[in-house]
């Protein structure tokens, strides 16, 4: 697939006008307050994985509305002191899988929480373990369109709240340095990490690649791939303007650029310039407006891969993430 979005020189300065409702902050303040009561942790049980250099716990925490959300929590075996933590969010249609699947951050010396995606896990990987009790809301079968016509019923209102509560959960687990918690994710996970950066002001860092839900209106005009394709297919059979405007209104409450504007934490971005699943203009819009409403100027950097699509920098980019976050630890 040849490059299809804006030229690189234009991407570097791409700062579209924000697409956010006047009550954006009130919406999220109220949503998070409704789910903040009580201890975030429900349980944490050690599991046998067959790995000798890693210890893992099967964690359940309270997410949106107090719903139980599953996660894997892992630490390097034998670590005696509290460790900085990385909360990782999985991609669209993926669940938490098996505990030995994602060990990069543990091997690098971090405590690691991998959050399950409620109501997902049936598209690839090794599945998920968190049902969504609210799947009866109007909409199509895919997560991207569940409750699409009502921001209060939308799937991503629940999933983003889960992602915020995952940070509270990891801070309640033993052996975690509560003051050094970072969020990381790719694709849908990148969109969730960016939302967390905008809603949790004291993150240590955020690492985002190929983020979903950034520059949503433009993405819907550019691509029919992935989750955006589910949205266009849903609206293609609901041809009245009311449905379209209701969908746009709902999506404005989960727009990643709006979360990015409110973020405080240092940020590391990655993007493939031939990405037709999450068009690069969305990542650049979020990057270029990152932190502008926070009252600080958080350090940020972005790495572009001109000949790559949704896979972006892949392992090369992970190597850059490891080095960057290690540098943040040393300077922080």
UniProtKB/TrEMBL annotation:
Active site: 187, 275, 310
Chain positions recorded as substrate binding sites: 92
GO terms classed as biological process: polysaccharide metabolic process
Domain Acetyl xylan esterase: 1-326
Region (Disordered): 1-24
GO molecular function, a single term: carboxylic ester hydrolase activity
Database matches in Pfam families: AXE1
Name this polypeptide is given: Acetylxylan esterase
Organism, scientific name: Streptomyces pactum
Lineage: Bacteria, Bacillati, Actinomycetota, Actinomycetes, Kitasatosporales
